[in-house]
Each structure stands twice: as C-alpha cells, then as structure tokens.
Amino acid sequence: MSALEEGPVTLADAPVRRLNMIEAINEALHLMMARDDSVVVFGEDVGYFGGVFRATAGLQKTFGKSRVFDTPINECGIIGAAVGMAAYGLRPVPEIQFADYIYPGYDQLVSEAARLRYRSAGEFIAPITVRSPFGGGIFGGQTHSQSPEALFTHVAGLKVVIPSTPHDAKGLLIAAIEDNDPVIFFEPKRIYNGPFNGYYDKPVEPWARHPDSEVPEGYYSIPLGKARIVREGEALTVLAYGTMIHVAEAVLAEKGVDAEIIDLRTLLPLDIETVKKSVEKTGKCLIVHEATRTGGFGGELSALVQEHCFYHLEAPIERVTGFDTPYPHSLEWAYFPGPVRIGEAVDRLLASGGRRAAPGGRNDAVRNG
Question: What kind of fold does domain 228-351 have according to CATH?
C-alpha cells in the first residue's frame, strides 16, 4: 500500500530517541520503504556498503537488491533513470554521493524532472527525491565541499530542502519522498554525526559543535515550505539554513544578542510570510550561508526582504557568506562564516540608526513628506 493512501498520521505522543542526522535519515528511508513499496533507493555505493556516510546502511539487507542497488559512477545516468522510474509510477530516492558530483545530472534535473508535470499537462509526474551531502566540514577540499543550492532554487518545478537538525531531517525527508514533484534534499555533512566534525570525527571548536536531537519514533512529516523559528527575539532577524543555524545561534548566544533566528528549512518554496513577519518586528536582517556570495541564495533573500519589508528596515541588510573563491582545503575554517565575521555583522546592525516603521507601514520621514 502506498503511504499516500493511508492519509496523514501524527505521533505527537510517540517515544523519542536521541539520534544524529545520519541515523535520522536512515530511519526515514527504512520507514518509507516499509510503508510504500514504490520507494526505491539507488546510487554509488548505497547498496552493499550502505553509503560513504552510512546513510543507507542496512537498507539492501532489509528490502533486497531490486529496491536498493548500486549504480555505475554516472550521475547523469542515475538521475535519468530516476526520471524514467518516476514517470512509470515509482518514487525513486537516488543518492548523489557528494553535491560536487551533481553537475553531470543537472541537465536531467532541469530539462526533464522539473518540467515533466508541465510538459505533459499533468499526465506524468516526477516524484523524485535526490539526496546529496553538501557543504564543507570534512576537509574535503574543492571537490567534496561545495554548496550549490542556488543553482537549483533558480529552476521552476524543483523544490530545495536543507535540514539543520536530525528531527527535521527525518520529517522533511518523509515529506519530500511523499511529494509529487522533484525535490533536491541537501544534507549538511558537517553536522551528520552530532558533536563531531563529520566523516573524520575530528573534534571542532565549541562554537561549531552541533548536538544530536530528540527524534520521535515512527512516522511524522514536516510540511515543505514552512520555516522554523529557532528562537524569538527583538533586536534583529537572522535568516539561515543547514549548518549555519548552529553557528549563528552559538555566536548570538555568546554575544548575548536578543536576535530572532529563522531556519528556512525549505529554500524553494520559501516561507516568505514567516520571514516578513519577523523582519517587520525587528527592523534589521542578517543573512548567513556557507555558499559563495555572488549569485548565492542570500542575494534572493535580500531582494525579497527589501521588497516586502522596505518601510520597516532600520539598516541595510547584511550578508555573511563563503568567499568568492574555489573551496580551500587548508583554510576551510577561515572560509566558513564564523564567530568573527558574523559577530562583526551583528555589531554593525546593532549600531545602525534609523526610525522604525509607523503603524501604517511607512516610516515617519516618508509619511511626513
């Protein structure tokens, strides 16, 4: 039976366990494959070995080689096969081993998966969930550390999801697999394994540690397109996603700033209403992401905040991002938006003057001519 035929299920009172993100993703895959026999998982080393990060460990043993299988090193072929499977009624969940390798499959995602529903007038759909570790944090250098999310938020017909906690990773992945449109599900590898630094288990600075979290047993889903307010505040709004949620939270706590932190969770579709409500309240906005600055998703966020909240802004919008360089290996921690650069941006925002918006939505200077 398809999971969709069973209707919505909520487990608000379900027992919880503390899991890291890898464990939560693995649990979501096990659960969805057990509930829906149209779900298939495949990719490089995902079957017998269980994935380079172990996210698919145990799946092939449980569900067999016809539903969990290894593929050649051919990302174009992996995504192309997923499109065909989806058109014939399956719900494929292909893994691209690193986001850095996704580019050969980009044409299939943009030209085929994203357009199939529209091109066929709804006769065919592409319920594909493309999982891929992304971002830095494992000293992988420029071929294992990229953050290409902005390349996909530009594409109409795709959805882009980036969790920041194990709880959200499980619920969002379930929702993505159930969705009838193609979803790019980027998993921040730097926070895969709880309080340590990803694949190599090297301890990192306290401000960069990210603990596991409580994850309910059984089925639950988190709607795509709905942001999470990490903490409420009045001084300024911080917009971030993935690893940067934890970094920003640690920096602001250390500085004692009463900031409101919003975890976007889904970049496309974006929960602009939650963003708008927060910026209208605080009057100041800081955007943080790990990807390069030019053409990064922070530029789109900045434009949207400007369009929706212009008369409420008290200061220019600040962006703290990765640098416009190929990803460095030895200077990885300098490349990340960290305490120094985030702290400086917060200080500039807090020092900025300006008058708050009048109740009518226009500031006093404009309202009084």
Answer: Rossmann fold (3.40.50)
Burial 119-146 (b: 16+ CB within 10 A, else e): eeeeeebbbbbbbbbbbbbbbbeeebbb
Q: Which residues are catalytic?
A: 144
Cis, bond preceding 316 (omega within 30 deg of 0): no
CB 266 within 8 A of CB 221: no
C-alpha closest to that of 216 among 187, 160, 174, 278: 174
Length of the chain: 369
Pairing of strands 266-268, 159-161: antiparallel
Query: Cα–Cα distance between 101 and 12 in angstroms, integer?
Result: 38
Q: Which CATH superfamily is domain 3-216 in?
A: Thiamin diphosphate (ThDP)-binding fold, Pyr/PP domains (3.40.50.970)
**φ/ψ of residue 203, rounded to 5:** -60, 145
The answer to whether residues 26 and 56 touch, using CB atoms and an 8 Å cutoff, is yes
pTM reported for the whole predicted model: 0.90
Span 151-182, pLDDT tens digits:
999 999 999 999 999 999 999 999 999 999 99
